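I would like you to help me understand the sequence and structure tokens below and explain how sequence relates to structure.
___
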Amino acid sequence: MKKQLRTVLLGAVFGAALASPVLAADKIAVVVKSLGNGFFDAVHQGAQEAAKELGNVEIIYTGPAQSTAEGQIEIINALISQKVAAIVISANDPDALVPSLKRAKDRGIKVLSFDSGVRKDGRMMHLNPSGNALIGEKLVKLTQQAIGDSGEIAILSATAQAMNQNVWIAEAKKVLARPEYQGLKLVGVVYGDNQSDKSYREAQGLFKSHPNLKAIIAPTTIAIAAAAKAVQDEGKIGSVYVTGLGLPSEMAGHVKSGAVKSFAIWNPIDLGYSSVHAASQFISGKLSGKPGERVSLGRVGTVTLNANGEADMSEPFTYDARNVGKFAKIF
């Protein structure tokens, strides 16, 4: 009788264990353009906030040492072997990553891009940090506010292949073509390859090639800081102004020096947070990437996928002497 009772109890215990297994956490890999970038460090923070809020999510934060497609491809292949549930990536090249990401999708891995997009056939959704047209217009407006209605301006971008920067530059050119901005003359577009030293040298080159230059627009966090430093080092504060997209923590000193009057950026913490929230819905099967699907981004709100499988998170926010110090303590 005791033996039978023991068997029944053991059966009940094992039966309960089988009925209620401990679920493994969904591994979401956040692959950034390069490590050691303050913008993406803030993205990581937001991703971790989303994971904590969602529960049962583990973040793998990774990226190459340099902003190259080759480095990201190696990482993607390793993540496929690890059988992660999702890959959320800011792409160094919209096309070169597609074959590896297609293999990931074929293995059942959900693939989303954010910040810098992947070609449509290489992902299920892309989350823009803001609307491309809004960013292009913001860059031009900030320039006009800094130098007035006329003057020579130049653009110092990341890599020539960076999809997001190229789209923003194209949108800025559309705005510059409007009658109200006809006095602003774009004299050149150069690339610093997302490296501080090269961006610094490219800024110096712009000073030499265009002695009447009045402003540099840098739609990338590395280039805007490098250009502002070049303005200060070359003694051009007051004659050349820098604006674009930057991190408050990196730009506060340049605002104080006078090299920068104002700049803009979305909140990278919210960008990482939103991307992970979106990925979790693809993992659960709530989303498939069809146009018109509504995607919940947690505290950030809800967005709708367009015909290209893209959505815009929010509009850029302006930072200047009034508020940069406050935000510099955050990111």
Q: What stands out?
A: The chain has a mean pLDDT of 93.
